[in-house]
UniProtKB/TrEMBL annotation:
Keywords: Magnesium, Metal-binding, Thiamine biosynthesis, Transferase
Cofactor note: Binds 1 Mg(2+) ion per subunit.
Residues annotated for 2-[(2R,5Z)-2-carboxy-4-methylthiazol-5(2H)-ylidene]ethyl phosphate binding in this entry: 131-133, 164
A single cellular component GO annotation: cytoplasm
InterPro entries: Aldolase_TIM, ThiamineP_synth_sf, ThiamineP_synth_TenI, TMP_synthase
Record-given protein name: Thiamine-phosphate synthase
Native species: Bizionia algoritergicola
Cofactor or coenzyme needed: Mg(2+)
Protein's gene: thiE
Catalytic activity, reaction form: 2-[(2R,5Z)-2-carboxy-4-methylthiazol-5(2H)-ylidene]ethyl phosphate + 4-amino-2-methyl-5-(diphosphooxymethyl)pyrimidine + 2 H(+) = thiamine phosphate + CO2 + diphosphate; 4-methyl-5-(2-phosphooxyethyl)-thiazole + 4-amino-2-methyl-5-(diphosphooxymethyl)pyrimidine + H(+) = thiamine phosphate + diphosphate; 2-(2-carboxy-4-methylthiazol-5-yl)ethyl phosphate + 4-amino-2-methyl-5-(diphosphooxymethyl)pyrimidine + 2 H(+) = thiamine phosphate + CO2 + diphosphate
Matches recorded under HAMAP family: TMP_synthase (MF_00097)
Amino acid sequence: MIIPKLHYISQGNSPAEHLENIQKACTSGAELVQLRLKNLSEKKYLKIAQEAREITSRFQTRLIINDHYKIAKDVKADGVHLGQTDHCPTVVRKHLYTWQLIGGTAHTLEDCETLINKEVDYISLGPFRFTKTKTDLPSVLGLAGYAEILKSLNTETPIIGVGGITTNDVTDILETGISGIAVSGAITADFNCIKLFHELLAASSTAEQRHTFGSNTDSKPT
């Protein structure tokens, strides 16, 4: 299955604002959106996830649910993203549909190796730089950190850079071997920049994408 190279991680001061921003991201051409809400009851989260699924379905945008794998299955999201303190990907895999993606968060080479052994579909590696989106942030990796980890990994699992990334960073980040990027703040500040992100990502990967599309046989319900 092809993992889009740009992930928008939802942001907002309320669940309604998250949905509004997801709508804006889809309208602006986002191919994958991750619904990332904290401190909500399961019932409330399910309702918001259902609404997010309705929005993304209209635009044929992929929807990833952060943490809540049972909700991801309930709303037939395209997958779930698991943080380091969340459930084990191997266990979660048994509960999901076969076509649903599992992504995992990593901060170190060892984290990446663990996730690869647990056969996740992609890894979000960060933080690239300091970001206010998360509290208790681990050490910033930067370009040097990415290059060192990617050189040691030598994996076909897509590694997605995350953490304070802007359009100015894309070209340099991709040169480290990173497959794509996950962005929250920069896109929420200006949804028009999605187009530029796509252009920068495509410029370095057009040939690779052509090859991947040719071999894609995966199917899933609409």
